[in-house]
Specification:
This protein has one domain: Four Helix Bundle (Hemerythrin (Met), subunit A) (Up-down Bundle), CATH 1.20.120. Helix content is 72%, strand content 0%. It has seven helices and no strands. The longest helix is centred in the C-terminal third of the chain and has 30 residues.
């Protein structure tokens, strides 16, 4: 099979490295959510330190991908840690935003349910095919719009039309990316090559 037969469109060299700069950025994202919430309550709302921590959390998601490509360090561990870091950070921050009344409970439950189902599928692929599948592009776009929704809800809760716009956009992308993952899952189970 050629690289074009790969469902990712290109054959990537994936290593077994664990200690890489990309993985450092991913792991650091896991540990940034709790300090973000602590600083929010410490300062009774948004502060400069809160904004710096939020900015790092967002930036780290781009830095891990940049470091992996730049250093040619795409690793099996990284393919696991990166989406888990995204899900842990987003999960904690959305629980927090729901707790303070800025995100509706139905959105939180739907997002967490989607992520749990994708995680189960990923584990099944890992067990049956021996490696972890990379995230789909629509999933990455969804994570970015999800981050924008959270940012707008936290920083501009009084701009209800803007908050609603990003909630609707995130909901549409959530559903679309979920079916994209299902399609990819079925193709992998049918024997398609993947990174």
């Amino acid at each position: 099979m050629s690289a074009t037969d790969n469902i990712d469109g290109v054959e990537l060299q994936v290593t077994n490295k664990v200690f890489t700069l990309a993985n450092f950025f991913s792991v650091s994202r896991i540990f940034i959510a709790a300090p973000i919430i602590y600083v929010y309550f410490l300062h009774d709302g948004i502060s400069l330190l809160f904004t710096i921590l939020v900015a790092y959390g967002i930036l780290s998601d781009y830095l891990d991908g940049w470091a992996a490509r730049r250093n040619n360090d795409i690793s099996e561990v990284g393919k696991i840690i990166d989406p888990i870091a995204d899900k842990i950070m987003a999960g904690i921050l959305f629980v927090f935003a729901t707790y303070i009344g800025l995100i509706p409970l139905w959105f939180l439950i739907t997002t967490l349910s989607r992520d749990a189902l994708i995680m189960v599928g990923s584990i099944y692929v890992r067990i049956t095919r021996g490696k972890v599948a990379m995230s789909v592009m629509s999933g990455k776009v969804f994570v970015n719009v999800l981050a924008l929704y959270w940012l707008v809800a936290i920083y501009f809760p009084y701009r209800t039309a803007l908050v609603d716009f990003f909630m609707i956009a995130a909901t549409i992308l959530m559903v679309y990316s979920f079916f994209d993952y299902i399609y990819r899952f079925i193709r992998i189970l049918q024997g398609a090559k993947f990174n």
